[in-house]
Amino acid sequence: MIATVRHKVNFYDTDAMAVVHHSNYIRWFEIGRVEFLRAAGITLNQLMADGYVFPITEVSAKYVASAFFDDELVIETIPEALTKVKMAFNYRIYRASDNTLLVEGHTQNVFTSKETGRITRLPDKYYDKLKVMMAL
Amino acid sequence: MIATVRHKVNFYDTDAMAVVHHSNYIRWFEIGRVEFLRAAGITLNQLMADGYVFPITEVSAKYVASAFFDDELVIETIPEALTKVKMAFNYRIYRASDNTLLVEGHTQNVFTSKETGRITRLPDKYYDKLKVMMAL
Amino acid sequence: MIATVRHKVNFYDTDAMAVVHHSNYIRWFEIGRVEFLRAAGITLNQLMADGYVFPITEVSAKYVASAFFDDELVIETIPEALTKVKMAFNYRIYRASDNTLLVEGHTQNVFTSKETGRITRLPDKYYDKLKVMMAL
Amino acid sequence: MIATVRHKVNFYDTDAMAVVHHSNYIRWFEIGRVEFLRAAGITLNQLMADGYVFPITEVSAKYVASAFFDDELVIETIPEALTKVKMAFNYRIYRASDNTLLVEGHTQNVFTSKETGRITRLPDKYYDKLKVMMAL
Lengths: 136, 136, 136, 136
Description:
4 copies of one chain form a homotetramer. In chain A, 40% of the residues are buried. Chain A has 3 helices and 7 strands; from the N terminus they run βααββββββα. Helix content of chain A is 26%, strand content 36%. Chain A has 136 residues and is an alpha+beta fold. Chains C and D meet through loops of C and loops of D.
């Protein structure tokens, strides 16, 4: 299932080239990921309270067109791969007003124990919810 | 004693008006504060390991002139008041190349127990070091 | 008239004290200001296209309580003063779930010519719209 | 030639997992890139004054280990490819205290006319300086 969420470009997201600074899209992938997990019935707060953190191990982005201040963006988060120790997502960010594709991206994160800092297997109560979402 | 630290303006600190976004100076006051504490022989990491956090309760800034990409800034941190439960600082941020005053600011923070979230008295091992710095 | 807008706390807005970093509220005042202007029928893009910029000259904030990742915030923007050369706003940011007041703030900005960098009088086509909003 | 620059992790760079938020490294690649250009005798301000902008078209990063508040980082920028219309860099970010590799990354940017927004050929006065740096 693709999770979709909207985000409006703030003035503080722009840079001296008068476009959105490219690093912000990496942050907005996170908004998409959080929304995907929420749609699966999982909140990061629960995961953290249970002792799991989920550091990003890889990120990439291709920038196709610029976004500007006040643009309404559509962030699509597409699950790519899931195991009990890691997860990969693809992203597409569009401008809502004209459907222009702005950025395509990819992330991978691993599930890690907050206590030991080591990679750990996600328990079934979370894994099963994610598996359902992957299949939808 | 006034603590002084330099910071170069990055491209990502600018906005679509081609100047530094005003919110960044609030972040740079933090760089100054951390430097002041370091000069006093205190690191935030030690404080946090000891169970203290130090949330900001007040901040203010007057913006006098704009900084631009690649400007070298001088951040001066001037201690204003110290008790065992709170600390206040004033700040002056200059452009190094021409000594232009850019921003004047003020912050207040309280010492808080990480565990309870409540305001707490700073132990003497920290307080005494800060008192010495205030008097220099 | 008070302009109201909602903003969800992103993970990237938090810091190592596991709360929203205090500098972000200064950014969120901007979201409120933009919304106020929009409600008045003015967009920053129009103003800039017309040759006006609107640098912040003063900002202040009192931090009452912390916001956390995933909190839904309500940003209220209350106009305080308006002349043809400057504008002042007050802000109140609440947590939507429990109505806790988190931050109160204030900003002042001046209208400036993009070309000369000097303070300039806002033309009536903008001023009149703002005056109407102040009176509502 | 590899350009090297140092950057200290600020408190505001951390997130609620108490490590540097992964998006910040993308910003720090920019610090490295700017430093590389400076070493080549080129400032972004000159380029922009001459009507060139240099949007990022691709970015990627692999995250190997976490950085923490107050870590001193070493950012290495390694030129990978140069034509008159685009440039590619690789990056390595280390922790200075123990030489731990934290992040490896890559960016590509194109030279674009500020006026038309279209890809343009970099004039020889800039291209030649960059070519020299590539060969060193």
